[in-house]
From TrEMBL:
Keyword Transport in annotation: yes
Protein name: Heme ABC transporter ATP-binding protein
InterPro entries linked: ABC_transporter-like_ATP-bd, ABC_transporter-like_CS, ABC_transptr_haem_export_CcmA, P-loop_NTPase
PANTHER family reported in the protein's UniProt record: ABC TRANSPORTER I FAMILY MEMBER 1
Entry keyword Transport: yes
Signal sequence segment: none
GO molecular function annotation: ATP binding; ATP hydrolysis activity; transmembrane transporter activity
Domain annotation ABC transporter: ranges: 5-201
Keyword vocabulary terms for this entry: ATP-binding, Cytochrome c-type biogenesis, Membrane, Nucleotide-binding, Translocase, Transport
Length: 201
């Protein structure tokens, strides 16, 4: 059975502001959904709702008949926020080890390989305080080479990356979807990933 993420009549408010309403769409296995919109339009709020971090005012969210708060849904979703924090005192490897342990422990060798895959070969033992903004972002994005979740929810994944870093992340997203996964990401940048659709909030 082809996996499907189904969003039906979603509504979100922030204070007295209506960010979006009657929002419905579907994303299937091997598909990419690019979410665009102006600042404050609700892109981050949408991803947080889909991740189960925030609660929608109205609407249904299902992955293969499992609702957003169910264990079955949560086990298949990986959410990466655009403000994910690193500890400046810890090394790249130690930070990635901490981030990965939030889901399940990962072998040290796998973590080191993930750092190399994201373009940080030789930086495993470097304190994050000594890294540039782009390198810190890469430490966080190394999680993409570890995650086994079916659905990726990525908030501004290309922020602070140089063109080479953007290409690495795009290739990883493409591979994930080719392997049967799906990806929803917010961005202000252009992209042309295989099987990509775009919605604007």
């Amino acid at each position: 059975m082809v996996s499907s993420l189904i969003i039906n009549n979603l509504e979100c408010q922030r204070g007295y502001s209506q960010l979006f309403q009657n929002l419905s769409f579907q994303v299937h296995a091997q598909e990419v959904l690019r979410i665009t919109g102006t600042n404050g339009s609700g892109k981050t709020s949408l991803l947080k709702i889909l991740a189960g971090v925030n609660i929608q005012e109205q609407g249904d969210i299902k992955l293969d008949q499992h609702f957003v708060k169910s264990d079955e849904y949560q086990q298949e979703v990986f959410y990466l926020g655009h403000q994910a924090a690193l500890s400046a005192e810890l090394s790249s490897l130690e930070n990635l080890e901490f981030l990965s342990a939030l889901n399940q422990p990962v072998a040290r060798e796998v973590l080191i390989q993930a750092l190399e895959d994201i373009g940080l070969k030789g930086y495993a033992d470097e304190a994050c305080a000594n890294l540039s903004a782009g390198q810190k972002r890469r430490v966080i994005l190394a999680s993409l080479f570890i995650s086994k979740a079916k659905v990726w929810l990525l908030d501004e994944p290309f922020t602070a990356l140089d063109p080479k870093g953007v290409k690495i992340v795009e290739n990883r997203i493409s591979q994930h979807c080719a392997d049967g996964g799906m990806c929803l990401f917010t961005t202000h940048q252009d992209s042309a990933l295989p099987n990509q659709r775009t919605i604007a909030l």
